[in-house]
Write a structure and sequence with these properties.
The chain is of the alpha+beta class. Strand 2 and strand 3 form a beta hairpin. The longest helix has 24 residues. The N and C termini lie far apart (98 Å).
Length: 361
Amino acid sequence: MATQVYRVSRVLTAAGSPVARVQAMNEEGHEARLELPALLVQRIAPGHVLVLNWSIHALPEPLAPAAVQNGPPVAADQAPLTSAASPRAVDDAFMDLMSRVRRDSSAASAPPPIATTPPASQTRSGPEINDEFNKLLGRAQTKGSRHEQLRTKQNLKFMAREIVAEMLRSNGAQMLPVTTPGALQACGTVMPTNGCENLLYAPITTQRFYRSGRTDIDVILEGLIPVVPGSAVLLAQDARPPWPTGCYSLRYRLANNGNNHDEIQIEWFLDDELLDTKHYGSEIYNNDGTVIKDGLLPIPLAMGQHCCVGGNNRLRARIRHTGNNNQIENIRLFVHHGKGIQCCSSCSMGRSCDCGGQAKA
């Protein structure tokens, strides 16, 4: 069994004709021509690859004698020599044959004006011509047995392997996309897994942050320290994993041992969103400068909900001096992590704060 690979060069069809011709040429310049039903060549275009898997076998018994022709005998010197005919002459003869079949088909559909018997060459219909092509191509006209189907399946597998082998032997490299010399071929956009997908923070960073139990609010975004009267400073946390807010501890010192703590205003923000409540220094310090109870105040609620800080959020605090004297000398501010989603809700509503680990009645 021989396998040959050709590249289609021309596809000849005619309107209304049931047959068509496919011309192909291999790398050695040898040409192959196939006459096929027109329905089979609708998707064939020049440049497609034609793979022929064929073999020739000796018949076990002599062929039956050919049918006697009704027409007059043709002399041997007048018979056309296909081997000596030019490709142009063969193409013209093929197109003439298809045109004649089309005219005969239209004539057969119309009622004949007189009762005459046309020649046999003019009464051939499309299926009969297709049967002749099938005989020439070695195809069975009817559905074969299971053994024949299995053999056809094996032949298709063998032909597929031969196609791949031929592409690798000949021009398989030319079928790959052209890239810059030395560059790797892009085989896909799927990245291999490495175990770190969707990881915002490393495990050691997350564990140490949660074990610390608190977050410092010490990054200056606006203003300066010391905070002069009539100005403000905006502080924020650094980038951290997600965490629930608890109570916060604010310690500051006024110049000249001042006690105008009610002029110190504390506002909390989640990014640019203002939280629900404002606090004042008089809620943290007494007039004599001592701390009220444990000095913890709750982080205000966010639209009535417990304030949870996401990994991409930043908790911010603006400390404003609304008075006219005694500037704020220094500031130390941090927030305890909440024990749960409602950790500090009770003290946000005026009850004792239980977020710092020691609840005060």
